[in-house]
Amino acid sequence: MKRFEGFADAKASFFKRLKKKNDREWFLAHKGEFEAGWNEPMKALLADVREAIDATYAHVDLAEPKIFRIFRDVRFSKDKSPYKTHVGGVIPLERSAKVTDLPMALYFHVGADETFAAAGHYMMEAQSLERFRKAIADDRRGAELTKIIASLAKKGFPARAHESYKRVPKGFDPEHPRAELLKGKGLIVRYPEIPAGLLATPKLGKWVADACKTAAPLVEWLVFATA
Q1: Which of 13, 44, 54, 122 is spaced 20 to 30 A from 212 at the CA atom?
Q2: Could you tell me if 198 and 210 are in contact, meaning their C-beta atoms sit under 8 angstroms apart?
Q3: Domains detected in the chain
Q4: What is the pLDDT of residue 99?
């Protein structure tokens, strides 16, 4: 596979045009532009980043990167637009027969409305969530997590749940010092804003890899807290 050389442009103009003309005829006429300028570069970016961060994940194995399909599932949606207006991909952690619900080392998203990178556990299954809460409540492991989150925040990497319950779950002290974490349905860390213009250059690969290395302590904490 070719090394990452940059996406087609720094403003994701393809997806802005797709948002205005989201139909099969338009997309098929511009499919080559999507493949060459966005889908193939995403594959190259994730492959390069996985190679660069593999040694950082000394205690877990990284799985092969995955690119999400651009086709929308419209079966239960009022919006019948056939295509997503972004391209997204992940670097997952290696699953096993016993452990299938794990955080991601990277999620990378380029689209009409936003471009961002993140890592962590977006939405946990019931068993993982139960173990996650017990780890948060544990004095030693909870303190470790608090320290990791504080360190990331100082570097411009905010960590929070994408969705949270309104109340602390039953069985845990509502006044617990880590009550907000206990309410979360998962925990993700969002990377800093990608520097202007970097999207269309080979330098993006190193920027993403460095960010992944910074976020790795949180991802590994989640692995061992929820596995």
Answers
A1: 13
A2: no
A3: 13-226 (3.30.930)
A4: 66
